[in-house]
Specification:
By secondary structure, this protein is mostly helical. The chain has 2 domains: 209 residues, Citrate Synthase, domain 1, CATH 1.10.580; 103 residues, Cytochrome P450-Terp, domain 2 (Cytochrome p450-Terp, domain 2), CATH 1.10.230.10. It contains 17 helices and 6 strands. The strands form 2 sheets. Strands 1-2-3 form a 3-stranded antiparallel beta sheet, with no helix packed on it. Strands 4-5-6 form a 3-stranded antiparallel beta sheet. It is globular, with a radius of gyration of 24 Å. The N terminus is likely disordered. Bound molecules: acetyl coenzyme *A. The site of acetyl coenzyme *A (ACO) has 16 residues, from loops.
Length: 442
């Protein structure tokens, strides 16, 4: 197994599961317990050179080898290309389930019965409206405001509309926050899109599915009823399932870290949106499109791949910190591309470039030796572009479904008896005991 490929650990414990550590500074030997394939960082604090010593700390920038919580929501094995929610493989969920059912599964820990699903769907459908004053919040943004900036600020603003959500231990409030967030994210995203175009907002249509209603709020014009193309509706629903949760990534960890202060869930989720806003997290599919545009035609692919090997370029949409195999989400997305292009009647020369680029890279030892395979972003941008989603709203398309993961992780966290406010340590590298220099002497 490569160093970073398994993101979750689920080791089983035997009585001999201990680690013997000899501190060569003192010659002392310590026995540290191994539980679930981990050692406790605090067990190292007893290792001191003398009584006044603070004790050993662990150093892990980027938390590349530190588990921050126990979670039973999502399991990833990057070597084998496995992604499971509550144990169910992502392939089965995309094939058999719907986004709202997956959101229920993440949040409640089990698949819903027929009654439970219909109540959950009813609740989400009937919480899609936003307070009319929220529209004034939206109206305050510049016409060219970035949609992720609007989304981040709007979700933070929701906390002021629902002050009762501060009762974070109240299970009814936890549930309501989940329902409200999952219900209102598409409304906020669609209103932000129409605000930019100067178009009137389209209110939610309760007769439509979650994905269908979102398409209606984006694209409905003068027609009395928006006709949803079932191919687009299905593809969007699958994209939502694929982005619902991915365990302790940057944005989810931001939700947990912020939420550990016991702030309300809307504020914690707004922190997650900020994490996702960054180009290293939610923005790679935009860079894939830019890369395909730069390549332009199939003739340029060999030259481009050579430049990647010469390290002058990166093959964006390939490689993943956790997956060292085909990202299972990329494989699933690929199946819906033809349907989306057929439904939109679009011809994209960039799609042909992407397919050929993938084929050649997968045939090339440079990429296979480094375990570089397509990730979820390789094709998602092309699909969103075909659906007429503006490029800078691609990250919003990621945030809408990820809210179900964020709020499920938040709920799990606030119910965890081991919850502590997150407060990492540092290695201090600055000056000590320096005297204050008066201004005239500097
Ligand atoms: N193109 C070319 N070479 C690559 C790429 C790539 N996309 N990704 C990794 N490599 C090479 C590295 O140069 C390195 O080669 P070397 O061993 O000869 O030096 C080797 O593969 C290992 O790469 P690392 O940087 O160690 O891989 P890491 O796990 O740190 O990086 C990352 C993962 C950041 C995703 C990287 O693969 C990358 O930049 N990919 C392109 C951006 C992208 O698609 N991001 C989206 C990820 S999916 C998501 O976030 C939802």
């Amino acid at each position: 197994m490569t160093e970073d490929s398994r993101s979750s650990t689920n080791g089983t414990k035997t009585s001999s599961d201990t680690l013997t550590v000899t501190d060569n500074r003192t010659g002392e030997t310590y026995e540290v317990e191994i539980t679930d394939g981990t050692v406790k960082a605090m067990d190292f604090r007893q290792m001191k050179v003398n009584e006044d010593d603070f004790g050993l700390m662990t150093y892990d920038p980027g938390f590349t080898n530190t588990a921050n919580c126990r979670s039973s929501i999502t399991y990833i094995d990057g070597d084998a290309g496995i992604l499971e929610h509550r144990g169910i493989p992502i392939e089965q969920l995309c094939e058999e389930s719907s986004y709202l059912e997956v959101a229920y599964l993440l949040n409640h820990g089990h698949l819903p019965s027929e009654d439970e699903l219909s109540t959950w769907t009813y609740e989400i459908t009937h919480h899609t409206y936003i307070h009319e004053h929220m529209k004034r919040v939206l109206d305050g943004f510049q016409h060219d405001a970035h949609p992720m900036g609007i989304m981040q600020a709007s979700v933070a603003a929701l906390s002021t509309f629902y002050p009762e959500s501060k009762n974070i231990d109240d299970e009814e409030q936890q549930h309501l926050a989940a329902v409200r967030l999952i219900a209102k994210m598409p409304t906020i995203a669609a209103f932000a899109y129409r605000h930019r175009l100067g178009l009137p907002y389209v209110y939610p249509d309760n007769d439509l599915s979650y994905a269908g209603n979102f398409l209606s709020m984006l694209f409905k014009m003068a027609e009395p009823k928006y006709e949803v193309d079932p191919r687009l509706e299905k593809a969007l629903d699958v994209l939502f399932i694929l982005h619902a949760d991915h365990e302790q990534n940057c944005s989810t960890s931001s939700v947990r870290m912020t939420g550990s202060s016991r702030v309300d869930p809307f504020s914690a989720v707004a922190a997650g949106i900020s994490g996702l806003y960054g180009p290293l997290h939610g923005g790679a599919n935009v860079d894939v499109l830019k890369m395909l545009e730069r390549i332009g035609t199939m003739d340029n692919i060999p030259d481009f791949l050579q430049r990647v090997k010469d390290r002058e370029e990166k093959l964006i949409g390939f490689g993943h910190r956790v997956y060292k195999n085909y990202d299972p989400r990329a494989r699933i997305i690929r199946k819906y591309i033809d349907d989306v292009f057929e439904a939109t009647g679009k011809q994209s020369p960039l799609l042909d470039v992407a397919i050929e680029l993938e084929k050649r890279a997968l045939d090339d030892e440079y990429f296979t030796d480094r375990k570089l395979y397509p990730n979820v972003d390789f094709y998602s941008g092309l699909i969103y572009e075909a659906m007429r989603i503006p490029t800078d709203a691609f990250t919003v398309m990621f945030a809408i479904p990820r809210v179900s993961g964020w709020i499920s992780q938040w709920t799990e966290m606030v119910r965890d008896p081991e919850l502590k406010i997150a407060r990492p340590r540092q290695i201090y590298t600055g000056a000590r005991e320096a005297d204050y220099t008066p201004m005239q002497n500097r």
